[in-house]
Specification:
The complex is a heterodimer of chains A (251) and B (305).
Chain A lengths: L5 H20 L3 H26 L7 H23 L4 H18 L17 H28 L4 H30 L7 H18 L5 H18 L18
Chain B lengths: L7 H21 L12 H18 L5 H6 L2 H20 L22 H23 L6 H23 L4 E8 L3 E6 L5 E17 L5 E12 L4 E7 L4 E3 L2 E8 L9 E8 L3 H20 L12
Antiparallel strand pairs in B: 1-8, 2-3, 3-4, 4-5, 6-7, 7-8
The chains are: A mainly alpha (251), B alpha+beta (305).
């Protein structure tokens, strides 16, 4: 069974990613990038082996989807690291990848658990992963804004970077979702509650990006945006207006 | 150039004014009927909108208002109002199909609610003006300039064609019985129509997981066209089939019968504006990705994380 060799590939990859993340804290960029890439190669080799063994892309079960999460998280982390040089981002990506590796290691029952038909799509993993990155960057921006408001230090330059990067991922997530929705449900946009709140969040961050002011109100607006984002992510599950109205609920 | 540009405050006043105007329209002419925009009216509307934006852009040096609409002082309030009204839509349960509103303010049919519509129209005009402005700033060619232009253009194209094209979209349901051939469909208003293609359902495939959850359902069909073609195809969730300008989706089946279902419900979708909307989506996507790699504005001071 191909899953039995998973642990060796996964632990090797995690180890390489962790070493890479360690080097990024020490500002050793070349080493950080090399180790991260080596980890990616090991992990992708496993996915490729599985692909060839199954004679189909491994996208049909929950366990298979988690594999793509673990691969793409460090990859996205690497892209953000190369672009902005955040020292924490590789550690964050490695940690998230580790979470999904552990899910696959400790809950082997999900290896065979089939996804409902609507979720069996090549869009699934990219859609979720870019949103995870958007949430991470915008979460970091929120913390930075709180720090700026509390200490009255000037954090605008760092914030602008993080929000732009987060907004890029947010845009990708939304548009991947639209393209996927067309294939799965016949229309790219139906104002489903999840879509409404995705739009609200996206528009909220656009306000921040366009607003040229030094007023602390701008930072306060950024905090509000993160509240909107929470609404989109999980809040709608508790929102009376959205009960039973969303197709984004999976049992 | 006007002597003193308007401030954000003027933008917020304009937004407030549009809400009041929208409310007045809601009570006098009633909710907006999007079916009005069937072709060729949507083409005309789009042409008028683009023309209006072009005129405002040309008049920006003569008229204070025209100048103002293309500035950040207008863009930010328009985005704030759009955000808030969309959030309001998210907080109020929406009627599943438009036009079912029975009295009330119209907040549960937000898409036909005039203050919502006018706010989006204002945002779109400001977006159009920003697109033209960013087009003029393309030279000297920088990554940032291209990114800004593509983001505005992509959103403008997707937003206008998606909204105005919606009236031309057809979503028709066809109930097929195994072994039978069907050419009748039901539209969204519940009216029965005849298609120029017929579908013969050969087999309905239903696979269950061990826990009994549906794993895969699909229909083996043969599509018969007027020209005498017989096209075999398998329609599956996430795998629609394209034929004669239609996209055919696996929509449903006899849920109570499950694996024993003798029926398959297919959906026929035709959206003539889709290529334009997709063009907008891909332009915006390209713009957003370029924005990620574009150098940032320099700000003085500040801490680096």
């Amino acid at each position: 069974m191909i899953w039995e060799s998973f642990i060796y590939f996964a632990l090797t990859a995690i180890l390489l990613w962790a070493v890479g993340a360690g080097f990024s804290w020490k500002n050793k960029k070349t080493w950080a990038v090399s180790f991260t890439c080596a980890g990616l190669a090991v992990f992708f080799a496993y996915i490729l082996t599985m692909w060839l063994t199954l004679e189909r892309p491994p996208l049909r079960t929950m366990g298979e989807t988690r594999l793509w999460y673990s691969l793409f998280l460090p990859l996205a982390g690497l892209i953000v690291y190369l672009r902005y040089g955040y020292r924490w981002i590789l550690s964050y990506a490695t940690l998230l990848a580790l979470v999904f590796v552990c899910v696959n290691l400790f809950k082997p029952e999900i290896h065979e658990k089939t996804l409902m038909p609507a979720l069996q799509s090549p869009w699934f993993a990219p859609h979720v992963i870019v949103y995870m990155f958007a949430y991470a960057l915008l979460g970091a921006a929120t913390l930075t804004a709180i720090y700026g408001l509390a200490t009255r230090r000037n954090v605008e330059a760092s914030l602008d970077e993080m929000v732009t990067a987060g907004w890029t991922f947010l845009t990708m997530g939304m548009l991947f979702g639209a393209l996927w929705a067309k294939e799965a449900w016949g229309h790219y946009w139906t104002w489903d509650p999840k879509e409404m709140w995705a739009a609200v969040t996206w528009l909220g961050y656009l306000v921040y990006i366009h607003w040229r002011t030094n007023s602390p109100l701008r930072l306060a607006w950024l905090l509000l945006c993160f509240v909107l984002l929470q609404m989109c992510w999980w809040g709608i599950n508790y929102l009376p207006a959205a009960q039973g109205a969303s197709v984004h609920t999976y049992g | 150039m006007p002597t003193k540009p308007y401030s954000y405050k003027v933008g917020f006043l304009l937004g407030g004014g549009l809400i009041l105007l929208g409310l007045a329209m809601q009570f006098t002419v009633g909710p907006l009927d999007w079916n009005f925009f069937h072709a060729p009216r949507n083409y005309v509307t789009l042409a008028v909108l683009v023309l209006l934006i072009a005129i405002l852009h040309i008049l920006r040096r003569e008229s204070r208002i025209a100048h103002f609409l293309g500035t950040l002082q207008a863009a930010v309030p328009s985005l704030v109002f759009t955000t808030l009204l969309t959030a309001l839509m998210g907080l109020i349960r929406q009627n599943p199909s438009a036009g079912e509103a029975e009295g009330g303010l119209g907040l549960s049919d937000m898409l036909t609610f005039w203050p919502f519509v006018l706010t989006y129209v204002w945002m779109t005009i400001t977006l159009g003006l920003a697109t033209l402005k960013s087009a003029q700033r393309l030279l000297p060619l920088t990554l940032k300039a291209v990114a800004v232009f593509l983001c505005h253009l992509g959103l403008f194209v997707a937003l206008t064609t998606g909204t105005l094209g919606n009236a031309d979209m057809q979503r028709l349901k066809m109930v097929c019985a195994i072994g039978g051939t069907e050419h009748r469909v039901v539209n969204e208003e519940g009216l029965v129509k005849q298609l120029s293609v017929a579908v013969e359902l050969k087999r309905f495939i239903f696979e269950q997981s061990e826990e009994g959850a549906p794993k895969r359902f699909a229909s083996d069909i043969v599509i018969h066209t007027r020209q005498g073609e017989h096209i075999p195809a398998t329609v599956e969730v996430n795998r629609p089939v394209k034929v004669k300008g239609w996209k055919i989706y696996q929509f449903s089946y006899d849920v109570d019968a499950g694996a024993e279902s003798r029926l398959s419900v297919l959906e026929f979708v035709r959206d003539p504006w889709l290529p334009a909307v997709y063009a907008g989506i891909y332009i915006l996507l390209a713009g957003a990705i370029l924005m990620f790699f574009a150098p940032k504005r320099k700000r003085k001071g500040g801490i680096k994380l």
